[in-house]
Design goal:
- This protein has 92 residues and is α+β, with helices and mostly antiparallel strands.
- It has one domain: Ubiquitin-like (UB roll) (Roll).
- 20% of the residues lie in helices and 36% in strands.
- It is built from two helices and five strands, in the order ββαβββα.
- It has helices at residues 34-41, 81-90; strands at residues 9-17, 20-28, 49-54, 57-59, 70-75.
- It has a five-stranded mixed beta sheet with strand order 2-1-5-3-4, with helices on one face.
- A hairpin with a 2-residue loop joins strand 3 and strand 4 (57-59).
- The longest helix has 10 residues, at 81-90.
């Protein structure tokens, strides 16, 4: 008796810059991880993108994926959020 093939995973990858974003959808086999999705999209974690998240939760390239997951490539903060808030408050 043949074992049915597991359903494929549909994964969305997103990366953004000021005033622009890029989105790619890939289809992977069961047991795929974030690194597999990055490779399928032709994207790498390098340069200005310094971290990964799956639905805003920290992830690594070894993190396992589930159908419908969204992988976000994250850029480094240019300014500490508290410092930015103080700067805005001082301008008022």
């Amino acid at each position: 008796m043949d074992t049915p093939e597991p359903d494929p995973l549909r994964i969305e990858l997103v990366r953004a810059w000021p005033h622009r974003c890029e989105r790619v959808e890939v289809v992977l086999g069961a047991g795929a991880c974030v690194g597999d999705a990055l490779a399928a999209a032709g994207w790498r974690l390098h340069g200005e993108f310094v971290a990964l998240a799956v639905f805003s939760l920290p992830a690594t390239e070894a993190s396992l994926l589930h159908d419908g997951d969204r992988i976000e490539l994250l850029r480094a903060l240019r300014l500490d959020p508290m410092a930015a808030r103080r700067r805005r408050a001082g301008q008022r």
